[in-house]
Amino acid sequence: MYNDFKGVLLNAGKLMLSMADAAVHDKGGHANFVTDADMAVQSYLMEELGKLLPEAVFFAEEKEENHLGQGYTFIIDPIDGTTNFFHHCRSSSISVGLLHKREPILGMVLNPYSNELFYAEKGKGAFCNDAPIHVSEREFSLGLVNMGTSPYFPEAADKTLRAGKLFLARCCDLRRSGSAALDLCSVAAGRTEMFYEFRLSPWDYAAATFIIQEAGGAFGSFGGETFTYEHPIPIWASSAVCRDAFVQSLEEICRG
Predict the structure, then answer these.
(1) For residue 235, what is the domain's CATH number?
(2) How many CB atoms lie within 10 A of CB 175?
(3) pLDDT per residue over 33-85, tens digit each?
(4) Can you give the CATH number for the domain in which 81 is found?
């Protein structure tokens, strides 16, 4: 199935790079933007993926109404890291996850700047540019922690920063690229060990968390919330070695 969709994703990456100076529009709320490139990439993905899997429905960031289908559902972020994109920070990605009966079966995340394509199919493992990847086996105290700052949800700021301070004391260091999908793929590839964000939307995590799972890691929600692909939730992801200590630390922050 991945081979059927690979070309579409690579062409979407070329489209994104060709629109580096696309117009920027304010979506309302804090630090929430969309560019003409987001809209063009999303339109292209929906059109081309729809040709390959006509029965699928689309759950996409720049789509006005989103509902998971009972059959196939593509969950799409046309540009994850839009703020990076229009600041020319060169750390943005295109994320496409595919659910069947509301369970993930395929995840693809493309970094067009580095030409890295992370992907996984159910039961077949995880890959970066066709080379197998696996989560790290470093212990918790040596782990690097990727963090998201939930910029669209200012109410999450205090817990986000308290968690960061805690992990600076208990782990090796913190990292943030500005693209949650790329940060999650870093965990899948064993470049970092953990990721957390106190409020993240499904199009940001649907593909990459599945890639982590197929790479031998784990993911879920925390703070008493149930994992879902239907609305924003807190997200953690981790290598198997770091999982217990990491989740316990996050729950400690949630308890105050």
Answers:
(1) 3.40.190.80
(2) 15
(3) 999 999 999 999 999 999 999 999 999 999 989 999 999 999 999 999 999 99
(4) 3.30.540.10
Among candidate residues 163, 165, 162, 150, the one with its CA nearest the CA of residue 233:
150
Through-space distance between the first and last CA atoms of the chain, rounded to whole angstroms: 45
As a whole number of angstroms, the distance between CA 92 and CA 22 comes to 14
Is the pTM for the entire model greater than 0.85?
A: yes
Task: List the Cα angle 151/155/161 in 5-degree steps.
Answer: 70
Largest Cα separation within the chain, whole Å, is: 50
- Can you give the residue range of the structural domain that contains 126? 2-133
* Same-domain status, 122 and 193: no
Positions of E strands within 116-162: 116-121, 126-128, 131-133, 144-147
Question: Do the beta carbons of residue 47 and residue 72 sit within 8 Å?
Answer: no
> What are 38's two structure tokens?
């987001």
